[in-house]
């Protein structure tokens, strides 16, 4: 039985520790929590008790090394703020632990190099939790492309929409500061760029990008005639009628994890999406050439009326068209199965000289289109050998973020960026 410790006990951590102490109690043991916030760790332990599990020891962030010495975990699960992932990954590897990390693996080339060097130095293992790979429709896309259903893939058009529920949420919390998250082209698009790498079985060569903050932020709101502003929703009269406001005191889990925990670190989870201090983009376009020769055109919009994606592949023998509509979602620290839950999906194969064929895809239960349960079983259960090779390594994690990192550089410099010049793997 493997032993696991979790560093970072926010909303995403619940996904892991709930599964560890319930579905995988026979194969996995949770031994500790680590966080910079004592109140949040206490809440995590209270959830363990609700699940019928005893509380586990808690350690403040500065005691990370001591946690490993005293509880002796085999693996560390990293669900902290993105810019600190590398610190915990590298230290865990140096102390003899393997690592499971939330995406993105890290946010820039220097931090990525630290992780790659630590893996080489220690021989340890890092896995990145790309749950979208495991969604049945995304696996089916991989099957179709790898079988040659449309021949050689020459171009891909990929459009991802985040709606005014899920998309807005990145502009309320720590993600709004690019120094924390690398912006949405790293934090969110790492999912999408990883899917392209996975589907094409290739990786990026050159990247060019454009992006702006066009909807969120105070200046954009002023241009649309907004006159009532606030810094955070809690305690604000102006936030009462704002459909973009997040009211922490109206959600038991958000209140316990964030509002009640403010006394520890003064982190405000409910900042105004139309306030100052936002340094990430909400409207982005990227073009990528892959080692395979395929060219990707990609767009990400964080204020769309619906949530989901459209992706089209043009090949030497036909075209594959996909549309997936997802349910609205806000990370409230609970009801994790709602994230990425599907409303509809369509996969249409158009052979070069044949009639279109709608592809049947089995429905999977759980979040991220049915990918979450399969990912968890692959991480913690007795999963059989995966014929689709969906488990993502540190190399996969690096290649997915390098597209976004190169895109950020391209937006800064206004030119084409060679990925190998950013970080050669």
UniProtKB/TrEMBL annotation:
<dbReference type="InterPro" id="IPR004104">
    <property type="entry name" value="Gfo/Idh/MocA-like_OxRdtase_C"/>
</dbReference>
<feature type="domain" description="Gfo/Idh/MocA-like oxidoreductase C-terminal">
    <location>
        <begin position="143"/>
        <end position="418"/>
    </location>
</feature>
<dbReference type="GO" id="GO:0000166">
    <property type="term" value="F:nucleotide binding"/>
</dbReference>
<dbReference type="InterPro" id="IPR051450">
    <property type="entry name" value="Gfo/Idh/MocA_Oxidoreductases"/>
</dbReference>
<dbReference type="InterPro" id="IPR000683">
    <property type="entry name" value="Gfo/Idh/MocA-like_OxRdtase_N"/>
</dbReference>
<protein>
    <submittedName>
        <fullName>NAD(P)-binding protein</fullName>
    </submittedName>
</protein>
<dbReference type="Pfam" id="PF01408">
    <property type="entry name" value="GFO_IDH_MocA"/>
</dbReference>
<feature type="domain" description="Gfo/Idh/MocA-like oxidoreductase N-terminal">
    <location>
        <begin position="3"/>
        <end position="130"/>
    </location>
</feature>
<dbReference type="InterPro" id="IPR036291">
    <property type="entry name" value="NAD(P)-bd_dom_sf"/>
</dbReference>
<dbReference type="Pfam" id="PF02894">
    <property type="entry name" value="GFO_IDH_MocA_C"/>
</dbReference>
């Amino acid at each position: 039985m493997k032993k696991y410790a979790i560093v970072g006990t926010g909303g995403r951590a619940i996904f892991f520790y709930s599964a560890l102490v319930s579905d995988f109690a026979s194969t996995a043991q949770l031994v500790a929590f680590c966080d910079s916030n004592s109140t949040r760790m206490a809440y995590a332990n209270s959830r363990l008790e609700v699940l019928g599990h005893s509380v586990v020891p808690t350690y403040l962030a500065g005691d990370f090394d001591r946690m490993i010495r005293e509880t002796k975990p085999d693996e560390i699960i990293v669900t902290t703020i993105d810019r600190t992932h590398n610190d915990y990954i590298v230290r865990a590897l140096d102390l003899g632990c393997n690592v499971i990390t939330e995406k993105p693996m890290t946010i820039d080339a220097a931090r990525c190099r630290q992780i790659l060097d630590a893996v080489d130095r220690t021989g340890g293992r890092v896995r990145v939790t790309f749950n979208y790979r495991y969604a049945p429709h995304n696996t089916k896309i991989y099957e179709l492309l790898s079988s040659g259903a449309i021949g050689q893939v020459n171009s891909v058009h990929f459009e991802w929409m985040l709606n005014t529920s899920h998309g807005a949420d990145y502009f309320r919390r720590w993600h709004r500061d690019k120094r924390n998250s690398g912006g949405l082209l790293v934090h969110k698009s790492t999912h999408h760029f990883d899917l392209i790498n996975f589907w094409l079985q290739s990786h990026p060569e050159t990247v060019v990008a454009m992006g702006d903050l066009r909807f969120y932020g105070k200046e954009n709101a002023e241009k649309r005639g907004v006159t009532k502003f606030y810094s955070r929703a809690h305690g604000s009269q102006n936030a009462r009628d704002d459909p973009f406001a997040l009211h922490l005191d109206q959600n038991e889990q958000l209140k316990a994890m964030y509002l009640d925990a403010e006394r520890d670190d003064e982190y405000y989870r409910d900042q105004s999406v139309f306030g100052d201090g936002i340094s990430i983009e909400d409207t982005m376009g990227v073009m990528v050439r892959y080692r395979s020769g395929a060219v990707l055109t990609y767009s990400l919009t964080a204020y769309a009326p619906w949530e989901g994606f459209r992706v089209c592949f043009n090949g030497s023998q036909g075209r594959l068209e996909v549309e997936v509509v997802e349910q609205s979602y806000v990370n409230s620290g609970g009801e994790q199965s709602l994230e990425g839950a599907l409303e509809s999906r369509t996969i249409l194969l158009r052979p070069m000289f044949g009639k279109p064929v709608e592809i049947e895809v089995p429905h999977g239960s759980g979040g991220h289109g049915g990918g979450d349960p399969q990912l968890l079983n692959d991480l913690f259960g007795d999963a059989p050998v995966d014929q689709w090779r969906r488990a993502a390594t540190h190399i996969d994690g690096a290649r997915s973020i390098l597209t976004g990192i190169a895109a950020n550089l391209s937006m800064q410099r206004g030119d084409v960026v060679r990925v190998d010049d950013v970080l050669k793997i």
